[in-house]
TrEMBL record:
Keywords: Acyltransferase, Arginine metabolism, Transferase. Gene3D superfamilies: 3.40.630.30. It comes from Klebsiella pneumoniae. Signal peptide: none annotated. InterPro entries: Acyl_CoA_acyltransferase, Arg_succinylTrfase_AstA/AruG. The lineage of its organism: Bacteria, Pseudomonadati, Pseudomonadota, Gammaproteobacteria, Enterobacterales. It is an enzyme of class 2 (transferase). This is Arginine N-succinyltransferase. Its EC number is 2.3.1.109. Pfam families: AstA (PF04958). The gene is aruG_1. GO terms for molecular function: arginine N-succinyltransferase activity. One of its GO terms (biological process) is L-arginine catabolic process.
Length: 223
């Protein structure tokens, strides 16, 4: 039988095993014992009502009851960006026009922002590949919505979900190679690890504040 329950300190080895199976790109599940242990502790403190809303987060695991193995994880952050900035790219439009030349171009842009500050976030969804069957993934994902519906007062009206980007088995990310690497001068795996362990200050320090034209990205990154 498959059981979804709140994470416990004894789940740490199982979470480390899951983190090692992600292949990178799942920022909130780094292969870092201290970070994951702190995440477990924060989840338990959230249940006990010991944290301000800005620090609350709930982590759940999917357990195979016969073996006791932790085969999946999902989580909810109550309010992102209230302690540390939560970054996102906003898709916008920049118009270039000339009546004299009869030219009108509406170009899509990306603008680094903090638009979702204060929103609740669905995050850290990962299921062991061997257990991606019999509706386990659906159960793991939808359980968060059931929890939020049961405890609506704990969460904000706006809910966001950060989708995992495209990354291949070698850790190659088209979007990172086309954009991020030009400003950070590091591999995607390194940047992903730094963000996952709470070291995000370099984003604000190094990323440009002006709009970026999507047409300048590679076709792979745009896709």
């Amino acid at each position: 039988m498959m059981v979804i329950r709140p994470v416990e300190p004894g789940d740490l080895p199982g979470l480390l095993k899951l983190a090692a199976e992600t292949g990178g790109g799942l920022t909130s599940l780094p292969v870092d014992e201290a970070t994951l242990a702190a995440r477990i502790a924060r989840s338990q403190q959230s249940w006990r009502g010991e944290l301000p809303k800005s620090e609350q987060g709930y982590v759940f695991v999917l357990e195979e009851s016969e073996s006791g193995a932790v085969v999946g994880i999902c989580a909810i952050e109550v309010a992102v960006g209230l302690n540390d900035p939560w970054y996102n790219y906003r898709v916008g439009t920049q118009v270039h026009a000339s009546k004299e030349l009869n030219v009108y171009q509406a170009l899509p842009t990306l603008f680094l922002s903090n638009d979702h500050t204060g929103s609740s976030e669905l995050c850290t969804l990962f299921l062991d590949p061997q257990w991606r069957k019999e509706g386990n993934g659906y159960l793991l994902s939808k359980s968060r919505f059931l929890f939020m519906a049961a405890f609506r007062e704990r969460f904000n009206e706006k809910v966001v979900a950060e989708m995992r980007g495209v990354i291949d088995e070698q850790g190659y990310s088209p979007f990172w190679e086309s954009l991020g690497k030009r400003f950070f001068a590091m591999e995607f795996s390194r940047a992903d690890y730094l963000c996952g362990t709470g070291q995000k200050a370099f984003i604000a320090a190094l990323m440009p504040k002006h709009p970026l034209y999507i047409d300048f990205l590679s076709p792979e990154a745009q896709a």
